[in-house]
């Protein structure tokens, strides 16, 4: 299933989400100019290696990707879900929330495979946190989703789409030997990022925006 867009309009311009998208794109374009040997050195320099844990690399690794599909998939999910979460939190809070989810994801994968010498790269863990927050904030939302086989497009409940994604990551993590990355995918980073998002959203969401009726053209706050 490939999500295309959600049905919720954002009331504010998602400046942080756009900046993260642009920064990731610039880094990916720079990687694309490197020859294979230099790219490997770049990934080891800015990715997070669990056996040589670095707080600086926790952050830099969120902006490095392992290929076009990795990059495109992450940016698609961030674009679909990030604007609405940022709208509910506000720009400043969303920055902190995003980085904390990415940090939790890195810690989760490091704890699962502390001796691993493979560098972790990608925004997947932080974006998983955004997805977890979206699930809490918009449980009634629906996501326009492409089913490749057969080629059809449906609106799928966000609870189903995101819940299924989380279960798949969790089960894949359980089936990964010694908690290491399977097929280049750090499943426990996804799981921990998602869980962090579900928990941290209660800290970072703005109380005055919790009762906004997103289905109206003009947001209304219900009082009682």
The number of helical elements comes to 8
Coarse morphology: globular
Unreliable spans: 214-224
Going by helix content, strand content and strand pairing, the class is mainly alpha
How many independent structural domains?
Answer: 1
Radius of gyration: 18 Å
Number of strands: 3
Span from first to last CA?
A: 40 Å
- Element string (H = helix, E = strand): EHHHHHHEEHH
Estimate percent helicity: 55-70%
CATH fold-type name? Rhomboid-like fold
Residues in β-strands, percent: 5-15%
Summarize the biggest pleated sheet.
Answer: 3 strands, antiparallel
The H-level CATH homologous superfamily, spelled out, is Rhomboid-like
The CATH architecture can be given as Up-down Bundle
Strand order within the widest sheet?
A: 1-2-3
Give the C-level CATH assignment: Mainly Alpha
What average pLDDT do the residues reach? Answer: 89
């Amino acid at each position: 299933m490939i999500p295309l867009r959600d049905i919720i309009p954002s009331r504010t311009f998602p400046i942080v989400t756009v900046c993260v998208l642009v920064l990731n794109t610039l880094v990916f374009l720079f990687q694309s100019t490197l020859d294979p040997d230099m790219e490997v050195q770049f990934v080891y320099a800015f990715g997070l290696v669990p056996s040589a844990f670095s707080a600086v690399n926790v952050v830099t690794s969120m902006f490095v990707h392992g290929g076009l599909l990795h990059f495109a998939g992450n940016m698609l999910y961030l674009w679909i879900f990030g604007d609405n979460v940022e709208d509910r939190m506000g720009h400043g809070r969303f920055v902190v929330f995003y980085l904390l989810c990415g940090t939790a994801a890195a810690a989760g994968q490091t704890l699962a495979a502390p001796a691993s010498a493979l560098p972790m790269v990608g925004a997947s863990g932080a974006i998983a946190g955004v997805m977890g927050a979206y699930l809490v904030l918009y449980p009634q939302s629906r996501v326009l989703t492409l089913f490749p086989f057969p080629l059809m497009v449906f609106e799928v409940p966000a609870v189903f789409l995101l819940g299924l994604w989380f279960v798949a990551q969790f089960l894949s993590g359980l089936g990964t030997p010694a908690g290491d990355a399977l097929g280049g995918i750090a499943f426990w980073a996804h799981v921990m990022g998602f869980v962090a998002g579900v928990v941290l959203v209660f800290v970072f969401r703005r109380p005055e925006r919790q009762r906004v009726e997103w289905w109206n053209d003009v947001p209304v706050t219900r009082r009682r």
